[in-house]
Design a protein that fits this description.
By secondary structure, the chain is mainly α. The chain has one domain. The chain has 10 helices and no strands. The two termini are 31 Å apart. The C terminus is likely disordered.
């Protein structure tokens, strides 16, 4: 058995244990509101992963948490509440599960075991090694946990009063379509990297020809789809509209700028690509260049 699969088994056991801790915490907080119980349980599970990441000195132990935990929370909540068969809830969970399986598969495909750590985490460590245990806890793990949990609040409310409307179908279709976009974009990137291995090139083909980050576009649309499902059950705008807005802002103002700054350091020609291709939403190119520039994100 390769070291990668050994590491994956260890990580799988870690996540099962963290979920168990989260469930136990949830069951022992009956006096609190449902949302608060779920939040505390989610944070407790995150702390388990954080402690493990300190032990192995690799913050990337948290990486699959983003995609694994959301459907787990909703599925466990479905059984805990003893909800009767509900097609609208099935649709919502199915849509989220398609996204989860796609993203987790992509992570597993690219993950090389505990010997590697996300380059962004390494930069954080280099900036302040003595405080990295706190940066790891709050910046790498708790912040993403909170961002994703906020997205799920509308789903929890929807489960308490599900209704099958046109918005349910629109939201479900959006989520599945977004996951497909991510899957296609990831496949195109993977094939490009294999074809240009060892070369400092950039991809400008397939979906990447119309969006600099089609995979991030798919990620954002998943959460807008989930919000649309919730909106269809209340038919009014409320504060939960801030959930998908916060997720969109995370990618537009943090993830994308950080990624593109790294790309430009090794491929200055990427700046020309930035001028011609939409940052996030796939759109018509501003101009055609006779010299094809390839992008590698």
């Amino acid at each position: 058995m390769s070291k990668k699969y050994q590491s994956m088994i260890v990580l799988g056991i870690l996540y099962l244990f963290s979920i168990l801790i989260g469930v136990l915490v949830f069951l022992n907080l009956e006096s609190l509101s449902l949302i608060l119980r779920l939040l505390i349980a989610d944070l407790a599970a995150t702390l388990v992963v954080w402690i493990f990441s300190l032990v192995i000195k690799n913050a990337s132990a948290y990486d699959p948490y983003w995609s694994v935990i959301p459907p787990v929370i909703l599925i466990l909540l479905f059984f805990h509440l003893g909800l009767s068969s509900s097609f609208p809830i099935y649709l919502m969970i199915a849509g989220l599960s398609v996204w989860s399986l796609r993203l987790t598969y992509n992570w597993a495909k690219n993950w090389n075991g505990f010997k590697e750590q996300d380059w962004r985490y390494t930069i954080m460590y280099q900036r302040s090694p003595k405080l990295f245990f706190l940066t790891n806890l709050f910046g790498i793990q708790i912040f993403p946990t909170l961002i994703v949990f906020i997205q799920l609040i509308g789903a929890v409310y929807f489960m308490s009063a599900p209704s099958l409307t046109i918005f349910t179908w629109i939201g479900f279709t959006t989520m599945v379509s977004a996951a497909i976009i991510q899957f296609v974009a990831d496949g195109q990137m993977r094939q490009f990297k294999e074809r240009t291995k060892g070369q400092k090139l950039c991809i400008e083909e397939g979906l990447w020809k119309y969006s600099r980050h089609p995979n991030y576009f798919g990620e954002v649309m998943v959460w807008w789809g989930l919000y649309v499902i919730y909106f269809g059950s209340v038919m009014k705008l409320d504060l939960l509209i801030l959930a998908p807005i916060a997720m969109t802002s995370l990618f537009l103002f943090i993830s994308i700028p950080w990624m593109e700054k790294k790309i430009i350091q090794t491929r200055p020609e990427y700046m020309d690509y930035q001028k011609r291709v939409s940052k996030l939403i796939p759109f018509f190119r501003k101009e055609e260049n006779n010299h094809k520039i390839h992008e590698n994100a």
